[in-house]
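Per-record layout

source: Rugamonas brunnea
name: Response regulator transcription factor
length: 225
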Amino acid sequence: MRILLVEDDPQLGRATQIGLDQSGYAVDWVQSAESALTAARLHHYDCVLLDLGLPHMDGMQVLRALRGNGYAGAILIVTARDQVPDRIAGLDGGADDFIIKPFDLDELAARIRAASRRATGRTQELLTHGTLEIDTAARQVRNAGQPVPLTNKEYGILLMLVENRGRVLSREQLEETLYSWGEEVESNAIQVHIHHLRRKLGKELIRTVHAVGYTIDPAPAGPAP
């Protein structure tokens, strides 16, 4: 999952970026409204963490601009403003959640997961595909009941493919979600991660569509009762 963090406080912004990065998220951090709108226009983000007290332009204006420009991902307001009218304005303005500073990083991650579930139409943390189980809260994978250790990038690719079963995702789409600014991406990085996933989960799970990308086919329907 790739997150846009909009926070003008250098200490809090850096701490939040590091904490979420250690939890397996790709986080791009900007410190102004203008940079946030530019980043959202140029890149795909699954979630935006938006401070309200930004220089030059209030975060509510950024919220309205994002939704007005068609951004459909999760937006979580993270602010020191704790008055009820502010919460109502933020939620009515298009935010999916309203989080008061200071916050706990584990709770923030849980709220990100909850908002992302709603954005993708899921209702629970456990994803299943045949004998495969993905616990998105614990970021753990089991196959046929056995735990399968994955790196953060392998987990991210697997989650994207399972969430988009039946769709072909290009290398560029996978890279856009998995890597934040400043991360060096080798030209064959996705191919290497796919190779490792096939070795750990079986070569039949992920199908290569030549010159297009990768897909996991929908699970076959079970026998009729």
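summary: The mean pLDDT is 91. Residues 105-120 form the longest helix (16 residues).
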